[in-house]
Amino acid sequence: MESAPILVALDVDTAEDAVRIARELAPHVAGFAVGPGLIHGPGPGVVGAVARLGPVFADAKLHDIPGRVEAAARRLAEYGARWVSVHASGGSAMLAAAGAGLEAGARGDSAGLLAVTVLTSLDASRTAAAFGRSPGELVARLARLAAEEGADGIVCAPKELGVVAEVAPGLLRVTPGIRVGGSGDEGPRTATPADALRRGADLLVIGAPIVAASDPAEAVAAIAAGLG
Predict the structure, then answer these.
(1) What's the CA gap between 206 and 209, in Å, rounded?
(2) Residue 190 belongs to what domain range?
(3) Among residues 116, 122, 148, which one has the least CA distance to residue 135?
(4) What secondary structure does DSSP assign to 135-151, as a single string?
(5) 47-90 pLDDT tens trace
(6) Is 159 a catalytic residue?
(7) Of the residues 23, 61, 63, 133, which is catalytic?
(8) C or N terminus of the chain, fewer CB within 10 Å?
(9) Could you give the count of Cα atoms lying within 13 Å of 91 in the half-sphere of its Cβ?
């Protein structure tokens, strides 16, 4: 099976399960996303264990004062993360600090910054109430900021992929909120894998439909077969 443009979100409880699934799927996917549940549960060492099997997106969603973000980003890079997520809303100084931390901690290959824009759980009414802007307007503003600060890519919902392509075409587009078969939505701004790729996604973050399947490799193959 040819490698699919999927980052498998290892949303499991233990490091052992994360490594077992990653070992099984490594030949078939682009890499793995290690989220807060593992980073703050078993610990960031999970990033290192999975990184020995394939590229890791440490989805830490860092958001703090620049010095703390720099230290956290450096540590995740030292563990072997290929990318680390940082909330773009933290501003230019925080993004720059994260980039400096990743550069300082990178082992061998560079570690890149992925700027988180608007979570898929937020719909237009919630972003209007909180920020006075639509999701598309917010994503455009944050994508420009991320590009200015040298981010490798952006994390955005499928519906804003066109916005990112327009305002920051050089950024890698990593897309959660992927709806597979009868799986539950991850928020109001979702799409199927094929639709997300048509909209311009580079990498799809998919978790439960794969890791909760009785045969994760078969689940990946089924998703890949529907990508065209």
Answers:
(1) 7
(2) 4-225
(3) 122
(4) HHHHHHHHHHHHHHTT-
(5) 999 999 999 999 999 999 999 999 999 999 999 999 999 999 99
(6) no
(7) 61
(8) C
(9) 5
Domain containing 211 — which CATH number?
3.20.20.70
* pLDDT tens-place string over residues 187-219: 667 899 999 999 999 999 999 999 999 999 999
Report the sign of the C-alpha dihedral through residues 203, 209, 214, 219, in that order. negative
Question: Rounded distance, CA 125 to CA 2, Å?
Answer: 41
What are the distances in angstroms from CA 143 to CA 70, 160, 188?
A: 20, 10, 20
Q: Provide the 3-class DSSP secondary structure of residue 208.
A: helix
State the pTM of this model.
0.93
Q: Which two tokens stand for residue 6?
A: 């999927």
Residues in the chain: 228
80 in Cβ contact with 47 (< 8 Å): yes
One-letter amino acid at 107 equals R
**C-alpha atoms less than 13 angstroms from C-alpha of 34 in its C-beta half-sphere:** 35
Quote the number of domains for the chain: 1
d(CA 26, CA 50): 10
At 178, which helix (H) or strand (E)? none
Helices 124-131 & 135-148 angle (0-180, nearest 10): 70
Phi and psi, residue 40, nearest 5°: -100, 0
Angle at 52 between CA 50 and CA 97, to 5 degrees: 75
